[in-house]
Amino acid sequence: MTTTRELVADRRDQYAFHDDIVYLRETKRGLTRDTVEEISRFKNEPEWMLQSRLRAYDHFLKRPMPVWTDGLDKIDFDKIVYYRKPSEREEKSWDDVPEKIKATFEKLGIPEAERKFLAGVGAQYDSEVVYHSVKEELSKLGVVFMGTDQGLIEYPEIFRKYYGTVVPHEDNKFSALNGAVWSGGSFVYVPKGVEVPLPLQAYFRINGENTGQFERTLIVVDEGASVHYIEGCLPAGELVSLGDEMVPVESVAPGTLAMNSDGDLSTVVSSRRRNYTGEMLKIVPVSVGNAFELTPEHPVWTIRRERVARSRRRTRPLRRWDVDATKIPATEPEWLPSGELNEGDLICFPVASTTRDHPELSDNLLRFLGYYVAAGSAFENGVSGVPTVSLSFHIDEREEVDDARELVAALSGKPAAIYEVPAKHEARVYVYSRELMELCHLFAGRFSADKRLHSSIMELAPERQALLVETYLRGDGSRHTRSNGRTLVRASTVSRTLVFQLQEILARMGVYAGVQVRPGFSEAMADGRRVTHRQQYNLHYEEGRTVNQVWFDASRNCFWVPIRKIERRSHEGWVYNLEMASAPNAYLARGFAVHNCTAPIYATDSLHVAVVEVIALPGSKVRYTTIQNWSNDVYNLVTKRAHAHAGAKVEWIDANTGSRKTVKFPSIYLRGEGSSADIISVAVAGRGQHQDTGAKAIHLAPNTTSRIVSKSVSKDGGRATYRGHLKVAPGATGVVASVRCDALMLDDESRSDTYPYIDIQEDDTTMTHEATVGKISADQIFYLMSRGLTENEAQNLVIQGFLEVFTKELPMEYAIEFNRLVKLEMEGSLG
């Protein structure tokens, strides 16, 4: 069992003290790009982390302030100091911690707690972790418990693999703020099969006035991969790449191999859908046939046009395609919600990197298949039933006809015949061969609109694929010399799958080809007949170079393609999304890299903006307990999220007292069969306080269970808000879930709000929901007072009983401390 607990205390009762600390380093008040770079420079971080911070900072500036909860407009970001370093380094011996800081934490009981019942303990003071220790016997087993900054340095591969995969910077405005200025927090890694019998604990202390604390906690238990909660973000019919073809997103099943944003094949872990009513965006690149649709929050791998623009006079406006290609390799792309994209921004078209040799595909067969997909047919004659393969050419294409005859004869073992139709300017090369007909069907399909290249062809090295492309263009292409002397190559097909496959192959050959779509139509002929023309896909590029205004990025093995325009429409219906096993958790929509879409959870703060990511891999157990007791001048708004894989159990025990404003919704996503979630959340709101708390349990796999219990107490005009989200996704059969929300108000001035959201998309679900709002009964108080208690003592006893569901989950030391904090909050609430 692995248990992680966090205790936060500041300026309450004996904690209400301030230390006169001379900080070794600190930034100026306010947040600028220079502030972010300065923090990273102070920490001597690798370049990728600096770029990650800057990307988060840019997103923070662009993202609007959440408006669904009040009071956030009072935060003045320009008054906050975003980094203060109180100590030179993170210590492993308590004796080495600076004396003033050590005295502070001794008042909070850290050394005593460590001796008595902790497997490991950490302490953060303002921006930096000053102390971390883990018991020696656990350290020998490979348990890692250290500051997050230290984890970045000492375990770079594990850290980079999981960092930001559960809560990405783009998740919400304040996860972006944390990503820009994070400092401190805990990094925990527990190897497979290792049980930590005692809790690991972290303490966080804000000492300096107007100081922001932005710790980042990353907990990985057992083995596995990086994962994200997925909600649907592509409409039905939108195409995603499986490597060898593009298929509608709604047809992709778990276990399918799909192309990810690195150009590699990756397993689809799950496919999700939800009902969506709202705006749908159509991103139209310069290759308009690759236009794709998605919801506004769906992230797209992007480079902002302004970041790679050519230098120009200030008086000259920035033109849409005015890009300095030399800037692209040095510019870090970012995952931007599609709703934030602009015309001219560059989006990523990855080049497939998977290469396998298939000896059964001879050079002759590849060259023949090029002719076949261009203008061939393979069928059994309807009269005689004779298997026939036929290739059509213009009657004047003698060189191509002779070449095709040789290939057909070599592959079939029979001489190929020619049938000429001068009236139609047509010459057909044909042979009667079942073996060759079956090869055509296997590797390239049967009919014109259904032609597609077999996956083995799509895996070949580019130089071998070029053999097929060369004969395809000879059979169905045209070349036109432009006025600039360059040769424009065009080809057309009625097969949507084939055109995108050819585009992908050309990309592997170093050429980005544009795709145009000509809609189908019907027309009346002079003889009274009506002819229907199918939708046609036109491929085009200039020989020896890529499409204008498209740039190849060798460092990332992709093309950067500008957005020509963005169209908008209303949508009502299902939307879909895929979760990929690989990192980044992204796939391709019509060839372009899009990330899986996360449901926003806004958690904001002027002083305390934390992010916690917990990854519970198969069969693991994690308990995360938080007792937060901030002072009344603290905005405590955090994003805390866990992912539970097959058979994993995650328990989130969360208590909130103090603070001016708390916004926190511990969330558990049940991603594997048999996983379970248990969330117990309590909040106590006093005068001038708003506890906006709750919980989320998202069932994405069958036979999962969850329990949400929320308790709130409000007094002296305090406000307690419960926001809960329980979701059962399609396919998550056998789910058992329960939600209980109880609110207690101690006077007429206080307020309690409840906003439950329950989304059940699977009939085979057992779900219960209960909610109560009430006051302490006068009869209860009278009865207890008749037993010798004062009025305040009677009230406290009732409240402690009301909150027992939480306190009984705590170790004795924590339960006593929590009950004492509640008692302090209740003092003076009667009379």
Structural account:
With 831 residues, this protein is an alpha/beta fold. Helix content is 22%, strand content 36%. It contains 18 helices and 46 strands. Helix 2 runs antiparallel to helix 8 (173-181), helix 13 (462-476) packs across helix 14 and helix 15 crosses helix 16. It is elongated and about 115 Å long.
Summarize the structure.
The protein is an alpha/beta fold and 831 residues long. It is 22% helix and 36% strand.
Q: Structural class of the helix and strand makeup?
A: alpha/beta
In angstroms, what separates the terminal alpha carbons? 46 Å
> What is the molecular shape?
elongated
| Structural Rg | 32 Å
What fraction of the residues are assigned to beta strands by DSSP?
35-45%
Measured as a percent range, the helix fraction is: 10-25%
Low-confidence stretches: 1-22, 87-94, 104-135, 203-210, 224-233, 598-606, 811-817, 826-831
Total helical segments: 18
The total beta strand count reads 46
Give the helices and strands, then pairings.
Blueprint: E1 2-9, E2 25-26, H1 33-43, H2 47-62, E3 84-85, H3 99-108, H4 110-117, E4 120-125, E5 128-134, H5 136-140, E6 144-147, H6 148-154, H7 156-162, H8 173-181, E7 186-190, E8 200-205, E9 216-221, E10 234-235, E11 239-241, E12 246-248, E13 257-259, E14 265-285, E15 292-294, E16 299-303, E17 334-337, E18 346-350, H9 363-375, E19 376-380, E20 387-394, H10 398-412, E21 417-421, E22 426-432, H11 434-444, H12 455-458, H13 462-476, E23 477-481, E24 487-493, H14 496-508, E25 514-518, E26 521-524, E27 530-533, E28 536-542, E29 551-553, E30 558-580, E31 586-589, E32 592-595, E33 611-616, E34 621-630, E35 635-637, E36 639-644, E37 649-658, E38 661-664, E39 667-670, E40 676-685, E41 690-699, E42 705-714, E43 719-728, E44 735-745, E45 751-760, E46 765-774, H15 778-785, H16 791-802, H17 804-807, H18 812-826
Parallel strand pairs: 1-8, 1-34, 4-8, 7-9, 9-33, 33-36, 34-37, 35-38, 36-39, 37-40, 38-41, 39-41, 40-42, 41-43, 42-44, 43-45, 44-46
Antiparallel strand pairs: 2-3, 4-5, 6-7, 10-30, 11-12, 13-14, 14-15, 14-30, 16-17, 16-18, 18-30, 19-20, 20-22, 21-22, 23-24, 24-28, 25-28, 26-27, 29-30, 31-32
Helix pairs in contact: 1-2, 2-8, 6-7, 9-10, 9-13, 13-14, 15-16, 16-18
